[in-house]
Amino acid sequence: MAESTRLVDLVQSGIDAFLDDRHPILAEIAPDLAPFIDYSRDLLKGGKRFRALFCYWGWQAVSGGTTGFDPSAFDGDGSERTSDDLAAVVLAASALEIFHAAALVHDDIMDNSDTRRGRPAAHKRFEKLHSDGRWNGSARGFGQSSALLLGDLLLGWSDELFDRGIHRLPSESARLDSRREFNLMRTEVTVGQYLDILEEQAWQSFPEAGQLSRAERVIVYKSAKYSIEAPLAIGAALGDGSAEQVRALRDFGLPLGIAFQLRDDILGVFGDPEMTGKPSGDDLREGKRTVLIALARTLLTPNATRLLDELLGDPELSAQQVSMLQTSIRGCGAVDEVERIIEQNVRTALAAIAAAPISSAAKTQLAALAETVAKRSA
Fold first, then answer.
1. Closest CA to 334 of 285, 293, 287, 289
2. Between β-strands 119-120 and 115-116, what pairing exists: parallel, antiparallel or unpaired?
3. How distant, in Å, are the alpha carbons of 205, 212, 214, 218, 331 from that of 209?
4. pTM (predicted TM-score)
5. Coil, helix or strand for 312?
6. What are the residues facing 119 on neighbouring strands?
7. Contact in structure between 258 and 345 (CB atoms under 8 Å)
8. Which of 63, 61, 59 is nearest to 91 (CA)?
9. Under 8 Å CB-to-CB from 372, ≥6 apart: which residues?
10. Residue ranges per domain, the chain?
11. SS3 string of 46-58?
12. How many Å separate Cα 346 from the centre of its chain?
């Protein structure tokens, strides 16, 4: 995985350089804007970089280029000194990570999440600014409004960086196709987020029999496509991949993206806070109507289902109540069923690339990433 490690380092360097470039622009407007840069740096420091990696290996899968690259051939902003498709890929991959950061900021506001990666979420940091300064008005309102603007700013910056990348491509069709894939991703994840909050708020208005299918729809559009399928398709578009190659990568990416989110759903209920950076049972307090919850409701006794419905979404759930719900969900077999679905989706994903017309190096790396995605603990 040395090549992936070098790619991750380049992406981090590119992001850091981009924020360095934006810092004086904000500083010239007003010193009060320093938190926008500071919080962006913290949010974009580290992380698993799955989207960047899938973008890169989507490109590598179709480009036929040699594996391995020399980081010394890149400037500080992550762009290569010589015009090369690889520079475009690194910049596009960096843009995907900034887009992801924007989505996290907005997601934490909508979910009322206090933490992100073990530290206060952006809206809570802005809220603390207000409280520490003893300013007028609502600290909570200021925090949410400010974080909303931070997320919007990051969305704009991701677009700038993506354009910087695709403009380095010599192929007009690659520029157009990758931009089209990027735009589609933005639409899908935005409406997927709406479907998620709709499910949390309006689930009782829909037929009971459709709960599982609605939860699966949320997984596909809120997470699976944007986490894995879209980065792969964007990478393949950057490399001018054929329709057959892109289709194979999509057939790999979607089921793996579903497995990715299903693992997230398990971690959201049972994850170790030291590993996830979020309190144990956070999804229970937020009222997430996930596939795990939908399956549990079909397996629990009627009384246990009513209790789950009553407690799910209560932000004041005690540690004892969380533990009780965890025991019920695990005891009814819902976790085992989700694990089975994860394994099935990983098998489906791997089968999609087994005979696909893509590079052998990419097949190896994508298979390794599939294992990491499906079995991660954070």
1. 293
2. antiparallel
3. 12, 7, 10, 16, 22
4. 0.93
5. coil
6. 116
7. yes
8. 59
9. none
10. 2-375
11. CCCCHHHHHHHHH
12. 18
Phi-psi region of 136 (alpha: psi -120 to 50; beta: other; left: phi over 0): beta
Question: Tokens 């005979």, residue?
Answer: 355
| DSSP bridge pairs for 116 | 119
Tokens 């246990």 -> residue: 304
Collect contacts of 15-19 with beta carbons under 8 A, ≥24 apart.
15/44, 15/78, 15/94, 15/97, 15/98, 16/41, 17/75, 17/76, 17/77, 17/78, 18/77, 18/78, 18/94, 18/98, 18/157, 18/161, 19/44
Which is it for the CA torsion 105, 121, 36, 146, positive or negative?
positive
Neighbours of 48 (CB within 10 A): 12
Tell me which DSSP letter residue 45 carries: S
E strands along the chain, which residues?
115-116, 119-120
- Cα distance between residue 30 and residue 37, in whole Å: 12
For residue 74, the cross-strand partners are: 80
Helix and strand numbers (H, E) in the chain are 17, 2
- CA dist 129 and 147 (Å) reads 12
Entry field: residues in the chain: 378
Q: Which CATH architecture is the domain 2-375 placed in?
A: Orthogonal Bundle (1.10)
Please give the average pLDDT of every successive group of 10 residues along the chain, which has 378 residues.
Answer: 88 96 98 98 93 97 63 46 75 98 96 90 98 97 98 98 96 97 97 95 92 95 96 98 97 98 95 86 93 96 96 94 97 97 98 96 96 90
Measured on CA atoms in the order 279, 281, 287, 290, is the torsion positive or negative? positive
Q: Which two tokens stand for residue 336?
A: 């085992």
d(CA 98, CA 108): 15
